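This section describes the prediction task in plain terms. A model, or a person checking by hand, is given the sequence of a single protein chain and must write out its three-dimensional structure as a string of tokens. No templates, partner chains or ligands are provided. The sample shown here is typical of the held-out split.
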Amino acid sequence: MMTILLIRGLTLDGAMEGIKFYLSPDFSKLTSGQVWIDAGTQIFFSYAIALGTMTALGSYNDFHHNFMKDCLLLACCNSGTSLYAGFVIFSVLGFMAHDQGIPISEVAEKGPGLAFIAYPKAISQMGGTWAQGIFSVCFFMMIIMLGIGSQFVGVEGFVTAVVDVVPQYLRVGYRRQVFVAIVTAISYLIGLSMVTNGGMFVFQLFDYYSASGMCLLWVCFFECIAVAWVSPGIGQWMFDIRTMLGYNINGFWRYWLPICWSYLTPLLTMSILVSYFVNYEPLTYNKTYLYPLWAQMFGWVLALTSMLAIPGYFIYWQTTRAISASEMANIPLEIVNEKEKVVRSQEDNASSPQDVSVLVN
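The expected answer:
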């Protein structure tokens, strides 16, 4: 469908101007923290990073599945599709700018306005009634398919995580199916609020706070810290990867991956996040409507529910470990010595010549 829209877009007046605008970067924008937040949001959602969906879907693979090849293929396909979609969008935006006699920068919008306002408006100006209808169907069918595909993996990622935490409850009979139905029903009810007359304001509130790069950068930072610096550490992590793949990661990747997970990614994500907080601006709609204070507070509640869950669970985990250690300290020494004797006896039996021969055979 994108190819159909691209072919049609390239035949329009002003399409080449839109392509030139798309391929001409403005490096001064790199000094803006919001640009980095938007870029991180795009990459994280495009690759499903820090959302749990890739982890959930990957858990269904065989243990020795070559996930390195899948990761490289996924990155190339996602980035290639995004670049390709840029030609589709800006060829039409160039036509709109040419038709209205204004710069392309004033036509281009970001966020939902581009998909649901600017682009449909451009399609309505393409040829006669039949042409408008055909291209409108193609465009919105593409949007629907992308949305449904994203929703499938999003729900699956959440459901799989919850089911794995309490399998004794949700893997009995049809309880998993009932749980999925409850999750989708709640999501549907929340989505209904976004298709009302003021739905765009609600949508942008959820999008800006609860589904923004701010939350994803926070999660990604702690994921890297947990993998590289908390038990078992980056060395054990690389060993596990070698065990799963069945071969050593050599050459460039052997050094690049640990450096990224240990230093570059945590530093980059936290730097962008700090820059965002320092240059924070209240949410506005269409650059004119400033959200009231109560709406901004509600948005921060949405964001903090996911962000504070990580340090909150860490405190809970550390506290339970300390309590368990204190309880172990109160166990009588005689019981501890008896357990140590049992362990040594098992080790001696395992290292006996008879057992060794059995293991060798």
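For orientation: The longest helix spans residues 129-165.
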